[in-house]
Amino acid sequence: MSLLDWIYPPKCVACKMLLPLVHNAPKQWICEQCKPLFIAITEPFCPVCGHPGLPCPSCYGKTFHFEYNRAIFAYEDTVRDLIHKIKFQGQKQAAYALGDLIAKEVTMIGDYIVPVPLHKSKKRTRGFNQATVLAKPLSKSLKIPISENMLLRVKNTMPQSQLNIHAREDNLTDAFTYNKKKYKTPPDTVILIDDIFTSGATMNACAKVLKNYGVRQVICVSLAIALKDVDQA
Predict the structure, then answer these.
(1) Does any domain span residue 233?
(2) Which candidate, 131, 223, 150, places its Cα nearest to that of 189?
(3) Are residues 10 and 58 both part of a single domain?
(4) pLDDT value at position 56?
C-alpha cells in the first residue's frame, strides 16, 4: 500500500468498485464479487491446446508447431469484456491486472517470454501491445526476460475475429519474421504469450517461425481460450 493508493484508491478493474486498503497486503485488482465471474480452466484440459474437457474438439487432425498451450480462463463474460476494454478503450491497467492473474497460475522454465507482436501501425493506434503488458507480471514472477523484438509482425493482417478457421491461417501467411540480426543464436525455449487462443492459428504461425530459425521448443500461454464445440473447431 502506497501514498498513491490513498490519493487514488484502487478500484476493481472489472466493476470499478473501490477495493479495501489493507496494510502490507499484496495489491488487489479484482473485488470479491467479481472473482467468481472469472471462469478458470482446470483439469482435465487438452494437453496440446488447453481447451477444457477431453476428448479435445479442436486438435484432431491438426499440426501444431508449439509444444502446448496453457490457457488460464474461458473467453466468456467478464474476461471477454475486459479484453475488449483493453483493446478498444486502451485500458492498459486492466491488462496488467490480468497479467498478474496469469503469473499466479503459471510455472514454467524458458529463456525468453515473447509476446505475440502487433503490427507497428496497430501498436501506434492502441499505444501498447496488450500481450507485452500481460507478460510483465509473468516475467517478474518467473524471472525470465521479455523479448519484444525476437518476433516481428511484418504484415498488417485483418483481425482474426472476422475470419473463419481456414481464412485465419491464410491471413497469417508470412505475417511474422524472426529478428535474426539481434538473435543470431536462437534460444532453446521460448514462452509465447497472447491474450486469446481461438483456433490457435496465431500462436501456431509464431511458433513455426521460431522453430524454423532454430528455437527448440515453444510453450504457449494465453489469458483466455474460446470455448467451442466440435462443429466450431
Answers:
(1) no
(2) 150
(3) no
(4) 81
